[in-house]
Amino acid sequence: MQLAEEPNDDDLRSAHAFRDALQEDVDRASEGQAKDDSQYARRALIRAFFGQVEGTIAFLKGRVLTKHSSGAGGLDRADLAILHEEAYGLRPNGTAVVQVRFFPLADTFCFVIRSLQRNAGVSDKIFKSCAGWTSFVVAIDIRNRLAHPKCIADLVISDDHLRSVRVAADWVRFTVSATLQRLADHHHRRVVEMTREIERLSGLETREVDTDWRREYEALKAETWSLGERLGIQPDQLRDYLYDSDVTVRNDQFELRL
Known about the structure:
The structure is a single chain. The chain is mainly alpha-helical. The chain has one domain (9-256). 66% of the residues lie in helices and 7% in strands. The chain has eight helices and four strands. It has helices spanning 9-35, 39-69, 77-83, 105-119, 131-147, 159-202, 211-230, 235-242, and strands at 86-90, 96-100, 247-250, 253-256. It has a two-stranded antiparallel ribbon with strand order 1-2. The protein has a two-stranded antiparallel ribbon with strand order 3-4. The longest helix has 44 residues, at 159-202. It is globular and about 75 Å long. The model is unreliable at 1-9 and 246-258 (pLDDT under 50).
């Protein structure tokens, strides 16, 4: 599933290398903490996780802006300014100035996820009715204390802190995975609509043969549902979140309502 115009091979290699490097940092930090549960290892794991969060935000921002530049809608001038981390002002001499504007991490993550959905023509929403969102907010506070320590207590990571970070990591992965699944569903429904219209006009029968897409989609859906279960999200809540009103759900699959 493409989130923007067809990327070239260099774009794909760069994106995959970036994603893999961020995941490798988290995996190695997690393995290190499992072998040697020291304060240093706990701090390293938290720093690696938030490096992955920041990197994911930057990557998704880039995809949204690339698709917008190719003609996709859903974003207004305020959205674009926030995505570019810009604000505008005036100097005393009456000339305009562009100012860098940073926003809280939790707000930025939610905004980028919503922008990604609007940009693709999907209703924008984020599932916050679970412990994952609360843990994400708590984990950000822990990360901020590590980034700007004022005393030894700011560097101590308790068992509760570590649990909050792990739940937060599951929620971030769930949110990204669920968003990609919703975009994939939306894309597939549009393909179904166009295919049926072609069949109606031409009298020819077509069938979907993109087995690679289907395999990737099934893996994405399995990850979304697995993470949702780990976060304690009830199946009916997850269905309501994932599937829009024009979709009938049967056995965790979808079909178009026509």
